[in-house]
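Allow me, if you will, to draw on your knowledge of protein folds for a short while. I have a record of one protein: its chain in single-letter code and its fold written as C-alpha cells. I should value your view on which stretches of the chain appear to form regular backbone elements. Thank you for your consideration; the sequence and its C-alpha cells are set out here:
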Amino acid sequence: MVAISDIRCISALWENFFNLPEKKIKSHAHCAKFPCLPRRFQVFQLEISRVKGYVDKLSHFLDSGAQAALSMAIRHFKYNRFLLRGLEMVKTLAATDNSPAQLLIRLALGVVIFPHGAQKVLGWFGGPGYGATVSAFPAMGFPFWAIILLLMSEVFGSLLLVLGLFTRVWALAIGVAIAICLKMNHLQHGFFMNWFGQQQGEGYEYHLLVLGIALALVVRGGGMLSLDRVLARDKRRGGLVF
C-alpha cells in the first residue's frame, strides 16, 4: 500500500509549495548552496528528486486519469528545473565585481577589436568587406561556420564587450581567434612587430597583449558599469551573486 504520508507529500508539493511561509523557506538548510536563485525555487529544485520516488509508488494504484494528471505534474517539475538551471548558469557566467580595472581593459579590447571586424564585414577603414572576406578565408582552410563565428566575435562581440554583456563569452571567443591568428601567421616572425621594416612579417607581441586582456576578462568578468552586473544581481538580497 502507498503510505498516506506519501500522498500528502505530493499534494503539498503540487498545490501548496509556492504558498509556503517565507520564514520556513529561508530556514531551509540547503538554500545556501544556490545563492543566485530565489529561495522558493531553490527548495523547489531540491524536492524534485523526492517526487520521482513517490510517483513510482503511486503509479500502480491510480486510474488512468489520475496517472495522466500526475505525469503532467512531473513534466511541470522537470520543465521548471530546466529553466532554473539555465538561470543559475547565466548568473554564474555573468557574475563579476565592481572593479574599474576590468572596465578599462574591457573597453580597450572592444575598441581595438571592432575596427578589425568592421574591415572584414563592412569594408570600413580600408577593409575588404564581407564578400571578399568569406571568399578569401576558405583558401586558408577555414570552414564557413568558423568564418561567421569570427566575424560575429569581432563585430558584435567587441560592441557587447563595450557594454559588458556576456563579457566572458566574447573575451574567450576573441582570445581563441587571436591565438589561431598568432599560430598561423605571426609565430614564425618572432616576438617583435616589424617596427623597422626589416622582417618578412609582423611578430606576435600585440597578440600576446590581446590574449592577456582576454584571459583577465574571462577570469574576472566585465567589472564596473557592465550589463553583466545587472544580470547577476540578486534582487532578493539587494546585492550581487558573488
